[in-house]
Design goal:
homodimer, alpha/beta, 6-stranded parallel sheet
Chain lengths: 184, 184
């Protein structure tokens, strides 16, 4: 407890930061509709803005599927960088799981499987991220960073590439470099 | 968003605060072991301290059962008092669900069923409650209040009756009375 209190606290978002959610979303979309949308087609926008009206309902159904969040790929370098950060910082995972309740179990198991060095006591499944008391938040959603009271780091994703006004990190090596210069 | 920022924030624990978890725990225990332990037998201690050694494993199994958290009784007056508080405060539910992962789905459904006026975006399923950024936390566990940085209110439960050093509320009417005198 004393050790934790002294360390600075980082919250890390899951989807499109730790997990390649977009890849799975596009895989199911392209497979279902025999389409070929790529991440490059989604610069500055979400799949919701690109998909025709009659496919909108299915987009939500992809996310609601019980297995959607079960086997997402891990973002490159997320594991070693987070493992190193967990030695120097008080590390929490904070994900907006409440908007897709079927994701609760899969997200829990995914974290245990791929990030066993982060204890479940440090998982936060939430909705509104203004509830987080931390020094840093790494997130791909500007709306989450906007309501966070600490220092926000915008993790690059196609949808946020046109957003300005936030410190940006493009990959996990850049996250590592950023926290290298943070005094603990 | 502006409205939320202006309101003071209250986090409310679920088990033994909103939900009568102990009643269900004792019901399963007494039924399984043909025993007659009552809440009065547990003043100042947990069932873990009272149960013989050879029943300890089963205690954990009760909590891990997929249906344990599904149908807990709602604490008297919790609904009207929380509904009234939700008009004057920024209300969040914060529960240590991560220690019993099977509780994630049941807790979500229970909140939706009994407290439909609280949006899922305001549910926080966590472990360590030091992560909460709020003005108040109502909780039956002194260890949760100890690491919380705002004002803690200890909700009376048999196990915490010998604890001192916290502002105590014995029921939901006392919670209502406490927040009546808080300026918003």
């Amino acid at each position: 407890m004393t050790k934790k209190k002294q360390l600075r606290r980082i919250c890390v978002d899951m989807d499109e930061v730790m997990a390649d959610t977009l890849a799975e979303f596009l895989r199911r979309y392209n497979e279902t509709f025999d389409d070929a949308v790529t991440p490059e087609d989604l610069v500055g926008k979400g799949l919701w803005e690109v998909a025709p009206f009659d496919r909108q309902q299915q987009l939500r159904a992809f996310l609601d599927a019980e297995d959607f969040f079960e086997d997402l790929d891990v973002m490159a370098d997320a594991q070693p960088v987070l493992k190193a950060l967990s030695q120097r910082f008080d590390l929490y995972i904070a994900t907006q799981a409440m908007i897709v309740p079927n994701s609760l179990g899969p997200k829990y198991r995914w974290l245990q499987r791929h990030f066993p060095f982060i204890p479940p006591t440090n998982y936060v499944f939430c909705g509104d991220k203004r509830i987080l008391r931390a020094d840093y938040l790494i997130d791909d959603l500007p709306s989450n960073l906007a309501c966070f009271e600490g220092t926000g780091l915008l993790y690059s994703a196609p949808h946020n590439m046109t957003v300005t006004g936030y410190m940006r990190v493009s990959n996990w090596q850049e996250v590592a470099a950023y926290f290298e210069q943070v005094k603990i």
